[in-house]
Amino acid sequence: AQSVSQHNHHVILSEAASLELGCNYSYGGTVNLFWYVQYPGQHLQLLLKYFSGDPLVKGIKGFEAEFIKSKFSFNLRKPSVQWSDTAEYFCAVNARNQGGKLIFGQGTELSVKP
Amino acid sequence: EAGVAQSPRYKIIEKRQSVAFWCNPISGHATLYWYQQILGQGPKLLIQFQNNGVVDDSQLPKDRFSAERLKGVDSTLKIQPAKLEDSAVYLCASSRTGTGEYEQYFGPGTRLTVT
Hints:
The complex is a heterodimer.
Chain A: E1 3-6, E2 10-14, E3 19-21, E4 23-26, E5 31-38, E6 45-50, E7 56-58, E8 64-68, E9 73-78, E10 87-95, E11 103-104, E12 108-113
Parallel strand pairs in A: 2-12
Antiparallel strand pairs in A: 1-4, 3-9, 5-6, 5-10, 7-8, 8-9, 10-11, 10-12
Chain B: E1 5-7, E2 10-13, E3 19-24, E4 31-37, E5 44-50, E6 53-56, E7 65-68, E8 75-79, E9 88-95, E10 105-106, E11 110-114
């Protein structure tokens, strides 16, 4: 069965620190990859996505993610976090032969100290 | 454009009672999803509709959960009877079509507490 694993449950950083959130998935076929973010009191929204092409994708608010196929990984990065990045981050995978179904990781809660 | 609407936002019921959740997707979106998010976990797909037909309900506990999408627009998700382990946030999402390339837009969710 497909699964998605996020390495960290809770990450605490100071403003201006660099961020990297790990995401690994288990599925042998072709996938679409996503990072979603949920800010406090708000609904889930798309941060960035990878379908094909350049494995380094850029999203909103200065976030980027790199797809490494050989490692089944799609890690999220940001060079300098801000207090407003405090949120929960979810990695999700879609297997291309399974319609739109998303398999989510368990989420990483990011707290940024001002 | 208006987002995905869900109601109610919160619901508290006793076990063995029934409950229903409502979702209105973004206008023009053919595909509608219901996800269950238990505290500390990521969302898990319960059912996917394409227009008013079911595409995937493999993880829907059909002995107690049911869902419908009449006329291919609004959808309701029902639990009858509820169990304690059904306590979760129920998320509705919609997308233009049911292929993974199209972004899923999520509603605010309904937080269900079963006592």
